[in-house]
Amino acid sequence: MPELTNINSLSKGVGNLARDAAYVAVGLGVLGYQRAQVQRVELKNKLAKDFSLDERLTDARHEVTKGVKHLDDLVESAAQFLETSFQPVEEQLPPTVTKVTSLVESAAQFLETSFQPVEEQLPPTVTKVTNKAFDQAREVRNQIRQRVVPA
Q1: Cys-Cys with 122: which of 17, 22, 72, 126 at CB 3.0–4.6 Å?
Q2: How far is CA 104 from CA 13, 101, 109, in A?
Q3: Residues of the chain by 3-state class (helix, strand, coil), percent to 5
Q4: Which string of DSSP letters, residue by residue, matches 57-78?
Q5: pLDDT of res. 38
Q6: Closest CA to 82 of 135, 131, 146
Q7: Ramachandran region of residue 70, left (φ > 0), alpha (ψ -120 to 50) or beta?
Q8: What distances in angstroms separate CA 71 from CA 9, 91, 96, 137, 141, one per listed residue?
Q9: Do the Cβ atoms of 101 and 148 come closer than 8 Å?
């Protein structure tokens, strides 16, 4: 520290001290700005990952919807196959047909109850599609039963 008796050295010391303080303030400002930039980039990367998660969830929902639609198509094809297969034998084997119809009904009931826990975890739109598929399958079974089993 300069001597206090000399005014020139005192003013020079205060000037140097003020300049050093200004340099420190500017340096801290630069460091703060750089830290804010780093946090901004980290936040941007994190948000980008969150958006990609949304995209992956959308893709997964789309795949589940496609799977349910495929399942619906398979059930419809099976119902059509059963309908065409039972037509020639409906007059010849009514007790056997009744037994097969009962087995098909049991299998369908088993499938519906087995799918219930999975269905509860699906989004509402997919649940609507699965409910529609099960309703259509029930309707097809009822139509088959009406045509095959004599009243």
Answers
A1: 126
A2: 100, 5, 9
A3: 85, 0, 15
A4: HHHHHHHHHHHHHHHHHHHHHH
A5: 92
A6: 146
A7: alpha
A8: 92, 31, 27, 11, 16
A9: yes
Chain centre distance of CA 59: 7
pLDDT score recorded for residue 94: 57
In angstroms, rounded to a whole number, what is the distance separating the alpha carbons of residues 123 and 111? 20
Tokens of 65: 């919807």
Q: Domain segments of the chain: what residues?
A: 7-148
Query: Which tens digits make up the pLDDT trace of 102-147?
Result: 777 777 777 777 777 777 777 888 788 878 887 887 887 777 777 7
Closest CA to 135 of 127, 123, 146: 127
Q: Cα separation of 122 and 93, whole Å?
A: 42
